Amino acid sequence: PAPGLAQQKPFIQFTEALRLAPSLANGWLQLNYTLAAHQFRTAEETRSSFNRWTIDLRHEIPLYRGVTSTGPRDFNGPNDCAQALGSTACPPVQRSRNRGGSVSVRLLVSSSSASDGHRVPFYLQPTLGGSDLNGERLLASFADYRFRAPHVIALQETLEHSIWGPIGAFVQAEHGKAVDARSDLDFGKLVSNASVGVTVRAGGFPMLTLSFSWGREGHHIIGSMNNSLLGGSSRPPLF
Predict the structure, then answer these.
(1) CB contact set of 208 (below 8 Å; sequence gap of 6+)
(2) What pLDDT was estimated at residue 1?
(3) Would you state the pLDDT for residue 169?
(4) How far is CA 120 from CA 54, 128, 136, 233, in A?
(5) DSSP classification of residue 91
(6) pLDDT tens digits for the chain (239 residues)?
């Protein structure tokens, strides 16, 4: 069997990250950039200690002005939803008739490296396809964890728009691949899929999503809930 399939040694993970979220062009371009470095350490006899870096670049262009959103606040933890420092009250769920929508583009690149004699264990390698362990949806038409390797790259383009009250709709295109060699971490030979779906919005922010995705290996239906409900930050990833 594959190493680590029957039993895994405990490991410790250290993470350092930098997040930049500027608003440009008088609010017409909103950026959310995250740069992170991770160190995974385990018992020396397993030869499974390694390092990983991740670049996650999100770009959002709102289609309308004056529509506020109760999205995540930088000072909130996963169980907090205050809208201002020093406040403990959560905002009410709003049902807005204002038009809301956005165009977003995301680029995700992750690469791992291990010293001589060590390797990245398969159960700690990032995946693409369906939804992963953290609820991340990328290449959604494929089976969950369809692509797994030490290095991944993915592109995601989305148009989301309100329809009526809290109901919205979106269309999405995704491209990506998982590779064993860092030299193959480029934009060549990406696999692709497309998605359409509906959203349930709260305070101008998509909270519930039901999507239908199709690609070369069939289709996939996925329902998910936004884990940054009413302004709380997302929970830490499982790895």
Answers:
(1) 199, 200, 223, 224, 225, 226
(2) 46
(3) 92
(4) 15, 16, 21, 29
(5) P
(6) 455 566 677 889 999 999 998 989 888 899 999 999 999 998 888 888 999 999 999 999 988 865 555 455 665 665 566 666 666 666 555 555 556 788 999 999 999 999 888 989 888 899 999 987 777 889 999 999 999 999 999 999 999 988 887 788 999 999 999 999 999 999 999 999 999 999 887 655 567 889 999 999 999 998 887 655 544 455 556 66
Looking at residue 181, the DSSP 8-state letter turns out to be: S
Residue with tokens 């349930």: 200
Q: How far apart are alpha carbons 185 and 236 in whole angstroms?
A: 26
Torsion of CA 112, 118, 120, 121, to 10 degrees: -170
Other Cβ atoms less than 10 A from the Cβ of 27: the count is: 10
Find the distance separating the first CA and the last CA of the chain, reported in whole Å.
23
Look at the block and give the residue holding tokens 């009526």.
Answer: 164
Cα of 40 vs its chain's centroid, Å: 21
The residue with tokens 């995250």 is 34
Query: Residues 67, 98: contact at Cβ < 8 Å?
Result: yes
Report the C-alpha gap between 61 and 102 in whole angstroms: 5
Identify the CA nearest to 209 among candidates 139, 137, 154: 137
Nearest CA among 108, 123, 111, 113 for reference residue 51: 113
SS3 165: coil
CA 164 distance to own-chain centroid = 27
Q: Are strands 11-20 and 23-24 parallel, antiparallel or unpaired?
A: unpaired
